[in-house]
Amino acid sequence: MTDYILDTVHRLQKKLRTKDPFEAARNLGIHVLYRNLNNLKGFYTLRCRERYIVINESLSQNEQKIVCAHELGHDRLHRHFAQYTPLQDLMIYDMTLKPEREANMFATEFLLSDSDILDNADKTVEQLSSFFGVDERYIQLKLQLMLRRV
Questions:
Q1: Nearest to 22 by CA among 110, 126, 148, 146
Q2: Relative to the CA of 87, which of 53, 69, 121, 140 has its CA 20 to 30 Å away?
Q3: What would the pLDDT profile of 91-111 be if each residue is shown by its tens digit?
Q4: Which pTM was predicted?
């Protein structure tokens, strides 16, 4: 499944010519909404054949970008689940559930290219996290994905 997810990301980015998850969502006809969601980071839902990514408006811009990429992953990989219930994310870094792990892989690959990491190979995970504005767990996941391809 990992190879499928990575191929899906690369094909999508090539087709849309963007690494911006907001632009990708717009180009795919997905409505991106911002709401006060309390502790919920965001969710993906499908209503009347319209697709929605709803993001907590209180998150920082970097967090909103990560949530958007994560929910975009749900759209590409798990749309069938959203027909019955919204895919809600209290913790976007949750790796215990398979759909969440897959959406995190999608988001990681969407936001960080191999060359992004290789061009900054002199930095620690903490420095890369700060530099790219993503959680350290995304950097660690990206490194794991890169090692799988070696």
A1: 110
A2: 140
A3: 555 666 788 899 999 999 999
A4: 0.90
Residue with tokens 């798990």: 78
- Contact status, residue 92 vs residue 104, Cβ threshold 8 Å: yes
The domain locations on the chain are: 2-111
Whose tokens are 């993906």? That residue is 44
Helices (H) and strands (E) in the chain, counts: 7, 4
- Count CB neighbours of 138 within 10 A: 26
Contact call for residues 22 and 67 (beta carbons, < 8 A): no
Architecture of domain 2-111: Orthogonal Bundle (1.10)
Interhelix angle 2-16/136-148, nearest 10 degrees: 100
